[in-house]
């Protein structure tokens, strides 16, 4: 299976950044395979990369948030594996801008309060249901997010045995402690026992 990224990602025209600067052996090996492939496996845009994936025999690497959005919109796509690396995003402000601390505090508050998650759900799922051309090829939309979440999450029935073992382990431990205490008390002769 061929794989690639958007053409701009590893372009040497990016200021101050070259693909050879990356020390990761995995990334270097992947780059060598992509660069040697004929015809070129690079996609000019994310849309063209996704279109190639839909035709088959092709895996497309792109930013995780974009992949998550594309998978939510088109049930014929799936995200495989985790992230190759993690990069954060920021909002640029002048160094002495008064709005900087206000923005930072608001973002933290929205994140901790769950508002960012609610907005993502609202704009990605509620207002933008999947592409109509892909609806017949996957679960009903209302169940799509819950079924994918339930398939990757373990429920209480899956881990119930762990709790049973933990409970009996604690019970046996408590009984052993009580038994050892009684044993130690009985070992000391009655006349030598100190009372409080």
Automatic annotation (TrEMBL):
Bilayer topology: Multi-pass membrane protein
Protein name, per record: Ionotropic glutamate receptor C-terminal domain-containing protein
GO molecular function, one term: ligand-gated monoatomic ion channel activity
Family: Belongs to the glutamate-gated ion channel (TC 1.A.10.1) family.
Residue ranges of domain Ionotropic glutamate receptor C-terminal in the record: 2-126
Keyword terms, alphabetized: Glycoprotein, Ion channel, Ion transport, Ligand-gated ion channel, Membrane, Receptor, Transmembrane, Transmembrane helix, Transport
Residues passing through the membrane, by range: 159-183
Organism classification: Eukaryota, Metazoa, Ecdysozoa, Arthropoda, Chelicerata
GO cellular component: membrane
Chief location category: membrane
Subcellular location: Membrane
Native species: Haemaphysalis longicornis (Bush tick)
